[in-house]
Amino acid sequence: MIDEMYIRGVEVNYYFVCKTKLWLFSHNVNLERESDLVKLGKLVHKEFYQRDRKDVRIGPIAIDVVRKGNELEIQEVKKAKSMEKADVFQMLYYLFYLSNLGISAKGRITYPKSKEVLNVELDEEKLRDLEKILEEIDELKKNKEMPKPVRKKHCRKCAYFEFCFVG
Ligand code: SF4
């Protein structure tokens, strides 16, 4: 059994985006703050949720929670649908994390650019997949060696691009 509670939501996302990125981020090689794309993401997020937004930070996760009647909904705004699986599992991790604390919630991912909304719920099958992924993330984080960078379509947009491929 691993201690999932120290894994950050963004690390679950990076597991799908790039294992090198996940390793660099989890070893505090944090160039993300310098990326224009990250700044843009934060701006989209801020603009979209000017009202009715509550930031909640619990341990390693930071989420937007909205109360809908008796239910809690976690909301995420993403720039593009190109990494949908990463977005979904990041949300599933938040739901899992909260359920471990005895809090039941649903997830909603919004893509303002394409005006699409994804509703996410944690069921048995997804829970099994998520637990496997969390174990792999745990192993990756503990590994002393960085996974070799493999060039992908989205590398150019990555804050670690120069680190991986220049110089
Ligand atoms: S530049 Fe590419 S290989 Fe390097 S961390 Fe980013 S996505 Fe991964």
Give a quick precis of the structure.
The protein is an alpha+beta fold. Helices cover 43% and strands 19% of the residues.
Mind explaining what this structure looks like?
There is one protein chain. The chain has 167 residues and is α+β, with helices and mostly antiparallel strands. Helices cover 43% and strands 19% of the residues. It has helices spanning 9-17, 19-26, 36-48, 84-100, 124-142, 161-165, and strands at residues 55-58, 61-68, 71-77, 105-111, 116-120. Helix 1 runs antiparallel to helix 2 and helix 1 (9-17) packs antiparallel against helix 4. The longest helix has 19 residues, at 124-142. The mean pLDDT is 85. The chain binds iron/sulfur cluster. Residues 18, 20-21, 149-150, 152, 154-155, 158, 160-161, 164 line the site of iron/sulfur cluster.
Structural class: alpha+beta
How helix-rich are the residues, as a percent range? 40-55%
What would CATH call the architecture? Answer: Alpha-Beta Complex
Strand content: 15-25%
According to DSSP, the number of beta strands is 5
- The total domain count is 1
Q: Radius of gyration, Cα only, in angstroms?
A: 16 Å
Strand order of the largest sheet: 1-2-3-4-5
CATH topology term: Lambda Exonuclease, Chain A
Poorly predicted runs are none
